[in-house]
Write a structure and sequence with these properties.
390 residues, Serine Threonine Protein Phosphatase 5, Tetratricopeptide repeat, 72% helix, globular, disordered N terminus
Length: 390
């Protein structure tokens, strides 16, 4: 049977992710040496009950010309164990390593959790990921590190989309999906996982799944304030008509590049729910992708009229206004969006591109430099600076 292009694309994405993770694992473990340590040395280190014939992983400074026994310490052994549990959780001695690390450092869960969250907040993604993976390997029964990892991947995907690095964003979201799947399979059920997974599926426009998860969460959560918040989200989904099949079909058609079909479905949705801004956004999105700039602009203006705080609508409106030659109006739209989300790198870069188009090179350079202040890895901002000359 011939597979459809969507399935092939998904399989290629999964394969690419596996290759990338394999490369990361190889790099991370390059500095770990597995060493048999004699009983006297183990005793001196305060390690009891370890079979001397079983190798211990020791973290070294990297590629070594010569091994120095002075590198063996409790800290280097624990660091080596964490590396192995992060990148080779199926190691034959994983259970023994886990037990030893917990005995040597009883407070690792709290210490590393705080460190991982701090690294994620600093957008030091690779370090944060390794910390969370180590904790998952060290405490496989605990849902907290897995949830932290899923939330980090969602945040990273969001920033990648703002940089228009869609393939990488999709990879991160796929891995977040796998994390949530594992969390939802845990027993006993972990209530926060249901809540955050619901929010994840709302972003993915899978509203039926989100409703199911929120309903389960309400039954699992004891905190009344949190339950009321979940009920509010559930009611909003239902009130806005976001469970309507027509809406989901419209979104899916546009995502697949079938804008005409998506526009038809969006208009059907608008006919049923004329006061729901999302329908107007979908109509504008399909029209903009079809190059029907004025109609697209009108649809986005209606979406903004119904939801003035939606920065995506303001950004899309600016794109249409730019194509229509109304650069001043486009700048106004982007500036409104920036007031709502001052750290949105996509909007800042678009303001820079617009300023450059208006002949304001110095102003454009300022926007691109500002974008890099918020995200030093933003490829578009760097490309623009290279194009106009730093």
């Amino acid at each position: 049977m011939k597979k459809n292009s969507g399935s092939e694309k998904k399989e290629k994405s999964i394969a690419k992710t596996k290759d990338r993770n394999s490369d990361k694992a190889a790099d991370a473990l390059a500095g770990v040496l597995f060493i048999q340590i004699d009983p006297e040395r183990l005793k001196a280190l305060g390690i009891e009950g370890w079979e001397a014939a079983s190798s211990l992983p020791v973290q070294t400074p990297g590629q070594l010309q010569r091994f120095d026994p002075a590198m063996i310490s409790l800290e280097s052994i624990v660091a080596g164990i964490l590396r192995v549990l992060a990148w080779r959780p199926g190691h034959p001695l994983a259970v023994q390593y886990r037990k030893l690390a917990k005995a040597l450092k009883p407070d690792l869960l709290a210490q590393l959790s705080d460190a991982g969250v701090a690294r994620a907040q600093a957008k030091d993604w690779d370090v944060a990921q390794e910390i969370f993976l180590a904790l998952i390997g060290l405490y496989p029964e605990s849902p907290l590190p897995l949830l932290d990892l899923a939330l980090m991947r969602e945040e990273r995907a969001k920033l990648l989309r703002e940089e228009e690095r869609e393939d990488l964003a999709e990879e991160e979201e796929d891995q977040a999906y796998q994390n949530y799947t594992s969390l939802l399979e845990m027993e006993p059920p972990f209530a926060p996982a249901y809540y955050h997974a619901a929010l994840f599926f709302i972003k993915k426009r899978n509203f039926d799944r989100a409703v199911s998860l929120l309903t389960s969460y309400i039954g699992l959560e004891d905190d009344r304030e949190k339950v009321e918040k979940a009920k509010s989200i559930l009611a909003k989904l239902q009130d806005l008509g976001l469970l309507d099949r027509t809406f989901k079909e419209a979104y899916d058609f546009i995502q697949l590049g079938q804008e005409e079909k998506g526009l038809e479905k969006a208009r059907q949705f608008i006919a049923l729910h004329p006061d729901v801004w999302n329908g107007w956004f979908l109509a504008g999105w399909s029209l903009r992708r079809l190059g029907r700039w004025q109609e697209g602009a009108d649809a986005f203006k209606k979406a903004i009229e119904l939801n003035s705080g939606d920065t995506d609508s303001l950004n899309e409106l600016a794109l249409c206004q730019t194509e229509l030659g109304d650069l001043s109006a486009a700048k106004t739209s982007l500036e409104k969006a920036l007031r709502i989300e001052p750290e949105n790198v996509k909007i800042i870069v678009n303001l820079g591109a617009l300023s450059h188009r208006m002949g304001r090179t110095g102003e454009a350079r300022g926007f691109f430099m500002s974008a890099l202040e918020f995200d030093p890895d933003d490829a578009l901002a760097r490309d623009w600076l290279a194009r106009i000359g730093e």
